[in-house]
Each structure stands twice: as structure tokens, then as C-alpha cells.
Amino acid sequence: MRTLIAEAYHRLIEKGKVVTVEAIKNSIAGKDDSLMSLCSLMEYHNSECADGLAKGTMKNYYTTQKYVKSFLKSCYNGDIALSELTYKFIIDFERYLQRFQPIDHHKKLADNGVMKHIERLRKMVNMAVTMDWLTKDPFAKFRKHFDKVERNSLTKEQLCILENKCFRIERLAQVLDMFLFSCYTGLAYIDMAELTLDSIRTGIDGDLWIYTNRIKTDTSVRIPLLPKAKALMEKYRNDPRAISNGTVFPLISNQRMNGYLKEIAEICAIDTDLTFHIARHTFATTITLSNGVPIESVSKMLGHTSIRTTQIYAKVV
């Protein structure tokens, strides 16, 4: 029976049909006649791409899927056939995202956040076009538009304020240490959270280096372990939570981390939002480029796949 179900599933996908329990039953019985739906396409795309894309990327696709399903539930009775996917649908979805009011702690989507979800939906629809499940690309006339975002970073003075701040509250002290470690290594949150002692090795120069791969792009990076970063890391060498997880630092969710960073910024009177993006920008500008490190070296340490991305930081210096 499992073989029949699997064969029916793939038969439906290949023919551009809606994959449901009823559709599988009908396929086995030889009487399937439904078209591939948008929800089925998203499920298929995310299932097929899960092993080939980074966890963070897949998390973003699942979030986009959630927004699309919310829109479909609100305006289309829960789902539509791919044949009903039009340019108007895309424009309406864009407006829905722009007006969407989160009921939890999350902020309202900014214009670039809206475009990111549209961009991911487009990639899923492109799969349908490639697989011949759609004869016409509904995105053909759509033009994405991103707002230019200024790449903020901490100044030397702001960094000094944070370095000299001592918190009695343990959670704030730990989050500040991890943020500063990112400022001195350029590691993204997820890369720092999963960093292990095995990744710290002695380089050919005799100094300690971080040898790891960026989870977002699977790019190999080599980063010199600066004295301040080493001191921060050593504070947690005997931390039971870090030892239990096999990581350099105890694990704190990114969601909680951002909330604590906001609290730290208010206490320290830092007028820049503290995020791990800001920490990476600080490493790129204040720590490296401003001190004469070649942009090619900075690009490699940040794990950028294109030096053009790093050149954005160079314009700030």
C-alpha cells in the first residue's frame, strides 16, 4: 500500500495535480482530475529543497508559506489552483503584506521585508513554470523594488561603552559578551551559536584562528581570533551549558537575544539598534576596514560570495 501511495503522490506531482488524501485515493483508483494548487506547490517546493538549502533559508521559505496561506485563507477560501495565479494575485498579496498587523511581538513588515517574501514566492512559482505546471508566468510584468538601506555600525566610542559595561544580571552579561564576540569576529548569530572549540585552531602564523563554514551560504571562512574575542570566549570555557551543548557559548534563541540587546542599548544609551547584523557591520568597518585591512581579506572573513557586497561597507568608511 505504501508503494501505491508513493506512486500516486509522484503521479499527481508530475501531472500538476493537487496533492490531497482524496486525490491520492482517486489516483490509485484511476480517477484523478484536479489541478495543482498553490498550497501544494509550496509544500512540494519546500520538501524538495529542504536538503539543498541552508536551515536559515528554509526557515524564511516556511515563513513566506505561512504568509501566503494566511492571505489565501483571508481572500481565497484557503487555496487556489495554479491556473488562477495572476498578476493581480501578486499585487494583492503585496498589499496584504504591507497592511498585515502582527498580533505578537514582531514588528510590521518593512517594504524590503515584503519584497523578500514576494521574491521567495516568485522562486516557488518559477519551479511550477519550469515543471510545466504553469503555461504563463504571472510574475512576468512584476518589478520588485527594494529600498536602499544604510549599513549602520558601531563607532569606536560606542564599542568602548559596551566593552566597559558590567551587568550584574547574568542574561544581559552573556548576551553582551556574545554580541561583542560577533563584533570582533564578524560571525552571524547562527554561526556563533553553533561554534565549537574544534573550530578554533592554530594557524601557520602560530596564532589562533576560527575555521568554520557560514551556515547561510556554506562558504568556508578563516577568521583571526583577536585578543578581545579570545578573552570573551575563555569566560565560558567551563560553563556547564556550553559544555553540555558542545559549543563555545551557552545557547540563547535569536528571538530572546534581540530582546535583550534592545534592553542593553537602552541601558547604555546607544542610539543604534543592536543586532547581529550591526555586529557584522561593525567588524567590517570599525574593526577591519578602518584599520587598513584589505577589502579582499575582509570579504573572505565575512564569507561574502561577492566582493560587491563588501564594497557596500567600504563606502561607509
SSE topology sketch:
Elements lengths: L1 H13 L6 H9 L8 H12 L5 H21 L11 H13 L11 H20 L25 H8 L6 H16 L3 H5 L6 E3 L5 E6 L6 E5 L2 H8 L5 H6 L8 H14 L8 H13 L6 H8 L4 H8 L3
Antiparallel strand pairs: 1-2, 2-3
Keywords: DNA recombination, DNA-binding
Family: Belongs to the 'phage' integrase family.
Pfam families: Phage_int_SAM_5, Phage_integrase
Descriptive key words:
DNA polymerase, domain 1, 3 strands, DNA_brk_join_enz, mainly alpha, hpI Integrase, Chain A, 317 residues, single chain
Give a structural overview.
The protein has a three-stranded antiparallel beta sheet. The chain has helices at residues 2-14, 21-29, 38-49, 55-75, 87-99, 111-130, 156-163, 170-185, 189-193, 227-234, 240-245, 254-267, 276-288, 295-302, 307-314; strands at residues 200-202, 208-213, 220-224. Strand 2 (208-213) and strand 3 form a beta hairpin. It is mainly α and 317 residues long. It has 15 helices and three strands. The model has no long low-confidence stretch (mean pLDDT 87). 55% of the residues lie in helices and 4% in strands. Helix 3 (38-49) runs antiparallel to helix 4 (55-75) and helix 8 packs across helix 12 (254-267). It has two domains: 35-130, DNA polymerase, domain 1; 156-314, Orthogonal Bundle (hpI Integrase, Chain A).
